[in-house]
Amino acid sequence: AYNIHVNGVLHCRVRYSQLLGLHEQLRKEYGANVVPAFPPKKIFTLTPAEVEQRREQLEKYMQAVRQDPTLGGSETFNSFLRKAQQETQQIPTEEVVLEVLLSNGQKVKVTILTSDQTEDVLEAVASKLDLPDDLVGYFSLFLVRQTKDGALSFVRKLQEFELPYVSVTSLHNSEFRIILRKSYWDSSYDDDVMEHRVGLNLLYAQTVSDIEHGWILVNKEQHRQLKSLQEKVSKKEFIRLAQTLKYYGYLKFDPCITDFPEKGCHVVVSAGNNELNFQVRLPNEQIKEGSFKVTRMRCWRVTSSVPMSNGPSGSSPGKSEVKLELAFEYLMSKDRLQWVTITSPQAIMLSICLQSMVDELMVKKSGGSIRKMFRRRVNGALRRSDSQQAVKSPPLLDSPDASREPMAKLSSKLTSVSLRGISHSSSANDVGANDFHGNYAFEGIGDEDL
């Protein structure tokens, strides 16, 4: 069996025959010209070299399918991953009570099936809270890690290819929880949410929580004003004031490492307002702050590397930590592109944030509405509107042979790639092009911007 990692986490184990079955089903539904080529069957037992070659081919196949907006967002592909996740974790389909946190620490208990997908669980939580249907799409479920001292760390946004109950229980750690938060970036959408009592309460609770965590910056005078509005229970005015504060609507990530402006700098990254904000501690202990606009990122990718084992002195096999990196190519000035790398266990979550910012920007550009961005049920099946592409988080396949030494790089990092290569490449020589997220919201810089 092959281990499939999705979003940096072991998602499921599948056999070659199961993947072949998925391929045949996709071909039947979408046609041979849409679905990528599948590694051929072999009559004889594979040699170790052939086993590794097949693993690489299957990894490329799964990434190609996931990154195709039609195939990657299809119910066929997502239900295959959900079913495989449930089978791998050996969790039977039964009714269970799942606890979902709100930002204020309140627990919402919903009765669901273990086989319920993310959208079903989100709707169950919304129904329990009495949140109207047309506001459900403004919120998402996030997997977080909450330590005993109350610190909150975002692991990822739960996706359509997973079962929330299975995802959280298979981690066997009570620090991992599911939390409900708003899932849009543009604070002008707050107005839609505040129209309804429950939406207002959820937004208010999240804003208070983000201020308490120190994610939104508040000076003494602003703190006094906010406290006064809180005492008067003026929730809308409280949110309106908070909207003017620094880092309102941003997600703050755990401290990590960046190679900008030089290698090995410690950085705190926040995502919001269509940018990644960096607070960098330079080697001379000086703190510098700067922002990278998502519209000037030409492309980005997540790579993962496994430390090489150094014989007996190295850590025991299986214990080595996978190192995740997010790298993006940024237009620093009119003719100068530069790669910036963030090394963080939250690299996947950062990539998902970038993708959802781009999705939101593209919907706005085309004059669409955020309400239409979200998937709607059609005859019981989930459909994705054309305006929102699948969040491209390529799965990584481990070698089926556990005795093999870890590879130095699971995905090799390229120094540059043409945008045409990202979106239209069908060339086998264009190695790794599938790993890149081409940014369709990318904008060049004119003389007037310099």
TrEMBL record:
One of its GO terms (biological process) is endocytic recycling. It comes from the Eukaryota. Keywords: Cytoplasm, Cytoplasmic vesicle, Endosome, Lipid-binding, Membrane, Protein transport, Transport. Residues 381-410 are annotated as: Disordered. Residues 1-88 form the PX domain. SMART domains: PX (SM00312). PROSITE patterns: PX, RA. One of its GO terms (molecular function) is phosphatidylinositol binding. Gene3D superfamilies: 1.20.80.60, Phosphatidylinositol 3-kinase Catalytic Subunit, Chain A, domain 1, Phox-like domain, Pleckstrin-homology domain (PH domain)/Phosphotyrosine-binding domain (PTB). It is a peripheral membrane protein. Residues 94-185 form the Ras-associating domain. One of its GO terms (cellular component) is cytoplasmic vesicle membrane. It is found in: Cytoplasmic vesicle membrane; Early endosome. It holds the Pfam family PX. Belongs to the sorting nexin family. Critical regulator of endosomal recycling of numerous surface proteins, including integrins, signaling receptor and channels. Binds to NPxY sequences in the cytoplasmic tails of target cargos. Associates with retriever and CCC complexes to prevent lysosomal degradation and promote cell surface recycling of numerous cargos such as integrins ITGB1, ITGB5 and their associated alpha subunits. Also required for maintenance of normal cell surface levels of APP and LRP1. Interacts with membranes containing phosphatidylinositol 3-phosphate (PtdIns(3P)). This is Sorting nexin-17.
